[in-house]
Amino acid sequence: MPSVTRRRRIKRDRAARFRRANILKKKASRVWATSSRHVDCAQCGVRRTRCRCFEILPARGMLQTGPFRAYIRFLEGNAGGRRFLSDSLDISLLCQWLNVMIAQGGVSMMLFAGVVFFRHFNRVSSFGAIVSSMEPGKKAPTWKELEESLQETPSLMKAFARPHFLRGPDGSMVGQDMRQNTMYFFRSLYDHKHAREAADMLIRGIETPEQYDRLEYLMDSLHSHFPGVLGSYRRKSLYDIWVEVNAISKHALRSYPVAVGTGTAESLKILYGISGSVSEPVLRKLLVHLFHRVRRSSAFRAEKDSLATIALTLCGWYRSKQRLQHDGVRMSGLERGIQLEEQEYLDLRRELRASDLTWEVQEW
Question: What is the β-pairing status of strands 329-332 and 323-326?
């Protein structure tokens, strides 16, 4: 029989565990209670109903009350029409193509390449080049047709997008012009073993943080092998597509790419009161911290929100603060970007209907 001292210690420990359980139960996020209770937090590994990541101090700075409230109001106001990933025209367009290709038996590497090719220019008008050169049943794109389509495209880069290109060992651009540079990158990427492994992982589905870590390693390897492309800026746009089609589960996102100098990065600096430069690893940690604070607010939507949607709305929030003038009308950078995107979409519908392609873009 245990001694009196031991019985008292056991009783005290039980009481402490009971109090701790009650505290966690009372302070658990009401938002997470509406989602699955059997999913662990990708950052701490604890059940989401008991996750305490929102109490961790940020990697740099402190979350500012005023800007944070303004950002929450922006989310509650539908974020200027770009609240979720599916609201973005380029994302919804490519998701349509992916769903059709998967239904018709497209190979995994073709699907992976299609997303990378489209996001390389990040322009709706370049979508026709992908549709014409990549068909279900083929093991590789029709390279000649893809090159001819790129030659006929007047402008390759999307408005507000960063131009980027494959660099050689000395840092100079590979090839004589942008189109040669692009074709060399596309062909080389298609045969790379790490690109094929990433494609196989994505077609099977990335469900756990460990699988996501492996994908991050493969993408880091590709970025090292192809300097100048597939960095954080472009990787974030790739992940947006894969998260939206659920190739990457939002529950597996341990972190999310944030490039220096982007709207997402600038918004994080405003929210955390940071002046000066911030490294990409710190920006990733700040995004995770903000996500856990937003998920306890009334603006959070457990069914759709993830690190990807928070990064998207941060970029939109920053662009909504920019003011410019077009045709005598003052508007925000976000409104102008949406206008350009919608015009590209209408032009693309006309081009595809006038061509002999069987693809039909759905109404938006």
Answer: antiparallel
- SS3 call for 128: helix
- Among 210, 156, 159, 206, residue whose Cα is nearest residue 185: 156
Alpha helices in the chain (DSSP H): 4-27, 30-33, 65-76, 89-103, 108-121, 127-133, 143-152, 178-190, 193-204, 209-225, 232-244, 263-271, 280-294, 307-321, 333-354
Read off the pLDDT of residues 155-181 as tens digits, 9 standing for 90 and up.
666 555 566 778 887 777 787 777 788
* Percent of the chain clearing pLDDT 70 (strictly above): 83
**What is the distance between the alpha carbons of residues 50 and 65, in angstroms, rounded to a whole number?**
25
When divided into structural domains, the chain yields a total of: 1
**Residue range of the domain that includes 146:** 79-354
Task: Please list, residue by residue across 187-223, b when 16 or more beta carbons sit within 10 angstroms of its beta carbon and e when fewer do.
Answer: eebbebebbbbbbebbeeebeebebbeebeebbebbb
Dihedrals φ, ψ of 18, to 5°? -65, -45
Residue 11 lies in a domain: no
How many other β-carbons are positioned within 10 Å of the β-carbon of residue 310?
Answer: 24
Whether the Cβ atoms of residue 248 and residue 202 lie closer than 8 Å to each other: yes
Residue 281 lies in a domain: yes
Give pTM, 2 decimals.
0.82
